[in-house]
């Protein structure tokens, strides 16, 4: 009994796979990389890590509380025994 | 498994298509000796046309207010313009900021004694295939690209000035 389970794709299935892959990769042509002269927004301070000190303090606070990782980002209380 | 047959034939086809796509992408800067693409832009003191400066050695610079090395280059470009204007050097700096106000704010703290143009749409850097900020090009009196330089560091100044001197036909050491 192998009639229903013979899933060997024929020639047409191969072509269909190629056609689908081509169609999918064709969508990538809509994505153009950001050009060097278009990086004004990326160069803004808020786009860097630690660009906003208040935001950094807040996310550190949330991290310490949620992850029970008090002091993990500094020296004091980080398990160094120096406190 | 017959599915791997697909990978064999179709996979090769897809790989070939991707390879061609990568080759077709414009990843090269303008070549030496190629004609500098013309431009006609709005500037701080009226229209800025490359054709108008033909016959001069043009130092073309692409800059933006958010680009830190550009700030360093302005003082040096002022110096070069003052030093070699008589010998036929014209510095043209094309701003690529999207907002004119950002550029004007930069100019108020970094005054420029050379020609400044604005290209918020970015058509000129595209035609010159700018690969990084800042990019500068030396364009000869015949309107052809002599050399290109990406970035700006203090250490680059000597070599860049030497290129300007060579192109102007000034021999001997600078300074």
What is the domain tally of chain B?
1
Portion in beta strands of chain B = 15-25%
For the largest beta sheet of chain B, what order do the strands appear in spatially? 2-1-5-4-3-6-7
Uncertain parts of chain B:
1-6
Major sheet size, sense and barrel closure of chain B:
7 strands, mixed
Query: Which architecture of chain B would the CATH scheme give at its second level?
Result: 3-Layer(aba) Sandwich
Number of helices of chain A: 2
**Care to count the β-strands of chain A?**
0
CATH fold category name of chain B: Glutaredoxin
Structural class of chain A: mainly alpha
Distance between the termini of chain B: 74 Å
State the share of residues found in helices of chain B, binned by percent. 25-40%
Q: In angstroms, what is the radius of gyration of chain B?
A: 20 Å
Provide the CATH superfamily of chain B: Glutaredoxin
Keywords:
heterodimer; A: 83 residues; mainly alpha; 36% helix; B: 175 residues; alpha/beta; Glutaredoxin; 7 strands; globular; disordered N terminus
What does this structure look like?
The complex is a heterodimer of chains A (83) and B (175). Chain A has helices at residues 11-26, 53-66. The mean pLDDT of chain A is 76. The radius of gyration of chain A is 27 Å and the shape is elongated. Chain A contains two helices and no strands. With 83 residues, chain A is mainly α. Chain B is α/β, with parallel strands linked by helices and 175 residues long. Chain B has one domain: Glutaredoxin. Chain B has helices at 3-24, 68-84, 100-109, 123-127, 157-168; strands at 40-43, 46-49, 57-63, 89-95, 115-118, 135-139, 145-150. In chain B, strands 2-1-5-4-3-6-7 form a seven-stranded mixed beta sheet, covered by helices on one side. The longest helix of chain B is centred in the N-terminal third of the chain and has 22 residues, at 3-24. The radius of gyration of chain B is 20 Å and the shape is globular. The chains are: A mainly alpha (83), B alpha/beta (175).
């Amino acid at each position: 009994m192998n009639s229903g389970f013979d899933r060997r794709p024929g020639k047409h299935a191969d072509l269909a796979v190629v056609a689908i892959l081509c169609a999918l990769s064709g969508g990538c042509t809509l994505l153009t990389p950001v050009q060097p002269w278009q990086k004004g927004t990326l160069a803004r301070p808020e786009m860097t890590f630690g660009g906003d000190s208040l935001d950094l303090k807040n996310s550190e606070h949330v991290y310490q509380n949620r992850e029970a990782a008090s002091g993990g980002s500094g020296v004091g209380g980080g398990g160094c025994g120096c406190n | 498994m017959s599915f791997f047959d697909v990978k064999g034939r179709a996979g090769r086809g897809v790989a070939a298509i991707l390879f061609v796509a990568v080759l077709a992408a414009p990843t090269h800067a303008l070549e030496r000796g190629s004609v500098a693409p013309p431009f006609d832009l709005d500037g701080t003191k009226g229209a800025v046309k490359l054709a108008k400066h033909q016959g001069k050695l043009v130092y073309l610079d692409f800059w933006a207010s958010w680009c830190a090395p550009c700030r360093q280059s302005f003082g040096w470009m002022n110096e070069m313009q003052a030093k070699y204007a008589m010998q036929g050097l014209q510095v043209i700096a094309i701003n690529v900021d999207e907002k004119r106000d950002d550029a004007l704010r930069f100019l108020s703290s970094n005054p420029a004694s050379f020609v400044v143009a604005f290209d918020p749409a970015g058509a000129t850097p595209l035609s010159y295939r700018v690969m990084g900020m800042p990019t500068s090009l030396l364009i000869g009196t015949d309107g052809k690209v002599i050399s290109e330089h990406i970035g700006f560091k203090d250490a680059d100044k000597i070599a860049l000035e030497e290129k300007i001197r060579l192109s102007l036909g000034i021999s001997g050491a600078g300074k």
